[in-house]
Design brief:
Order of helices and strands of chain B: HHHHHHHHHH
CATH architecture of chain B: Orthogonal Bundle
Oligomer: heterodimer
Number of domains of chain A: 1
CATH superfamily of chain B: MetI-like
Radius of gyration of chain A: 22 Å
Low-confidence stretches of chain B: none
CATH class of chain B: Mainly Alpha
Structural class of chain A: mainly alpha
Mean pLDDT of chain A: 84
Low-confidence stretches of chain A: 235-241
Largest interface: A-B, 37 and 40 residues
Number of helices of chain A: 10
Largest sheet of chain B: none
Strand content of chain B: under 5%
Helix content of chain B: over 70%
Number of strands of chain B: 0
CATH topology of chain A: MetI-like fold
Helix content of chain A: over 70%
Largest sheet of chain A: none
Shape of chain A: flat
CATH class of chain A: Mainly Alpha
Mean pLDDT of chain B: 87
Amino acid sequence: MSDPVSTFAQALPYAVSLLAGLEGLGRGGLALNVSLTLCAVPAALVLGVVLGTLRVMKVPVLAGLAMALTEFAKWQPLLLTVFWIHYALPLFLGVRIGLFATAQAALVFYGTVNVAEVYRSGVLSVNRAELEAARLAGLSRLQTAAAVLAPQAMRRMVPALLAVTVSLFKDSSVVFVIGLIELTQTGMIIASRHPDLLPAMYAFMGLGYMAVSLILTRFARSLERRAQARLAGGSRLSSGF
Amino acid sequence: MSYTPHWDVLLEDPYPGILLNGLATTLELALVSTAASLVLGSLLAVGRASDSRLARSACGGFCDLVRSLPGVFWLLAFFFCLPMIVPEQAGRALNGWDGFPFWAAAAGLSVNNAPYVADLLYAVMGQAGRGAMASARLSGLTGFSFWGRVALPQAYAASMPALSARLLHNLKNTSLAMVISVPELTWSSQEVESLSFAGLEATTAATCLYAGLGFAFSLVLMLVERRLHRAVRTEAARV
């Protein structure tokens, strides 16, 4: 093996491809992972809250359906979900959605189920007595939900939701099985063209994933700290009554 | 537009064999990586709870590093990268070894799962077991008998529901092994697809098999949980 320093120097020009995708293949590389995640997270948040609400409110039939979806996601590997959507959508709906949309659908499905679970445990963690007290004090159901339930539940959910985001970002690396050229696949293609750069490519790939994961984790920690500080301030306030 | 799946394709000759073979490989891979990640995760948790500052930061840093990378990365790294960075002869031997894809996948899955196991164990060591651990220390237990007989069994028992969920997640992660062409269940379903063009049917069959496997796995874990709680109680009574 040649000396590592010169290998890395040789591999450096390919870093652009790893970040933004190979020339002539459209969007790819780390940018594809990030854009898959950025598109999937808002959709998963909205759908997850809907799904979680159905279960928390025990809406007949729909709650059961939501539970079935959750169980399904718990048993099925993401990879298989990607394949399943890849085959099922064209057959049943007659639509050919692109590869990006297929990957997107699988990630949104996974994210939705996870967000719903986080939301559910966040809502259930709020003290029942406080809710009853608010109702007895004359607040309507909606007011109780908005003023008492939501602020507490949301604060508790923030770290877990960011963890879901990090894991969605990491999960976006499996979409290359249906032919999307994201970071991993870009690195592997470059490595297959230049076998001696392979270790350097893996090091760059690792750095790319790590950078995004670390930024998200840092963000999560700072939010968590801020939420705790606010919670402490809140309790001081309420003990004054 | 409607489509009528033709399930009977799955019963034609080579296909049931391929799928069942895949199921067996998935099971093997799950068992090996579960065992290895429990061992590695326990070591990391012990390292993070230890008195040595070096061990604490090394184990903590390793956990952070692994958690920031996707599972696929580890499988590919063991399979493609390892033969390149070891001495040339060893690399050639690895590439020529028939069992290499399986063991590379097992190693990748274990490394990927271990930090999560360590996190769960470390978290309960910190909160629930403090008092019991301190009294075990005071009564003279040290080293292996302390960790092996008191601290770790307690940590397994206390972290069990979450640990089961993580091990189930690891079972699902075995599907990643298809990217280095280990013939596990997901790979097998795509093999059936490429031979029969019945992609939906094959993928659905694999889903059902995963569900069955996951169900069996969680039943076993539930039994283990019950045994662990009983064992911890008897050990506590003895100590």
